[in-house]
Amino acid sequence: MLFGAAYIRRTVSLALMAYACLPAGATLPDQEPGKDSVGKATVPAVTAEAAIVVDALEGRILWSHNADRRMYPASLTKMLTCAVALEQSADTSRMVTIAPEVAAVPETGLALATGERLPLLTLIEAALIYSANDAAAAVAQGTSGNVAAFVELMNRRAAEWGARNSHFANPHGLHSEQHWSTARDLAIIARHAMSIPQFEEIAAMKQVTIRRPARVAANPGAAVPTIGSMAEPRVFHTRNRLLNHWDLCDGIKTGYTRHAGRCLASSATGDGWRAICIVLQSKDIWSDSRALLTWALQNHELRTVVTAGKGEWQTKVHDGVDRQVACLPDRDVVLVQPTSAPRPELRAVLEPVTAPVSATQPVGRLEVVVGGRTRKTVALVAAGDVELSLWGRIKHESIPGPYAQLLLCVAAGVLLIGTAAKAACACRNRLPSRRRADHPVGQSDH
Q1: Structural domain includes residue 249
Q2: Residue 42 falls within a domain, yes or no?
Q3: Do 173 and 311 fall into the same domain?
Q4: Are 186 and 64 a contacting pair, CB within 8 Å?
Q5: If we measure between CA atoms, which residue out of 62, 25, 43, 41 comes closest to residue 274?
Q6: For each successive 10 residues of the chain (446 residues), what is the average pLDDT?
């Protein structure tokens, strides 16, 4: 048979794994609760209107529901605010003087006063850990000079990261009809943010201690209180309950407004890899998020599918003392895959090379193929040196005319002598055969 049973089973399995080959921003059909990407492990039912789970390594979608539906992100917006600020700010210790527009930001906050001065890093921590709205606005002001300029920067950076189905109208997430995103885009933002070491560290903090100037009673007719001496330090605790009650959780951000409902961006790390989960407009953000993250970690694993310096590939070498050279991958390739998935196919694309060849010289590429599509590509390099052969030197090196002619004559002579020797050997081999034919066994000359 052209195709055996084992081949058919493997093809079907790879087809079911095709989802893993989609890029992070690609459209993916929703996967209903109860069925995962390979149809074996059960995805827990959730109450969220929209949700997604991705691996932080590549941003691959492990499961999604209404991932591209436009939703209000509430304070999940602050992930983008703080990530952009950390990207743009080389010195987070610099002081930010609170502007009137920042002090006027309503609802949950630090009750910042106009003219108060706080370090940018303290404001980032207050925005990300305590979800202080005025601190988020202060972060915007301290990064771009004013909130409007920072909002333009937010939208530009989000699009550059791949979150192109979003529009942000402010840095804190308070409701606006012009402020919306999707579960997919928020996962892209969360993944990028968690790749920033300082953001990752802050997102995992359970509390932050802030020491601020003390307020002094306002003078008669004063618009705002004056700033006096330093007040006692105050501790602000995270609003992310998963950080306090689940050891695997290491971030990220809560969110709530009346229009957005309850939202959560969360992450959990186990067995060397991190899963990121977004749930929007959920009736139980804690149960939904923990269930989806647990499912992801239990039913997927980190695999090293290519190891740097190891392999059995070879490519042809022209004009070398060796006719072939071994080819080795120049780096590891690590993937997150379902535990029941077959190992990827490794497909070497090699090109003949011409001597001289030096070790680590690129000689091709190795494609990691999942479900018939190339998911990763790694360079293949020469394992060692291959020097030019004598004939190669004659062809490629600059040799003065008389010497070149002499070498060509010598080479031609060697070829002629070799040809003559082969012909003589062939004649000697034919002569005994003819004699045996002329004198059959059992007969003799008389």
Answers
A1: yes
A2: no
A3: no
A4: no
A5: 62
A6: 42 36 36 44 92 97 98 98 96 96 93 94 98 98 97 98 98 98 98 98 96 63 56 90 97 98 98 97 98 98 96 92 94 96 95 92 96 95 90 67 62 66 67 54 47
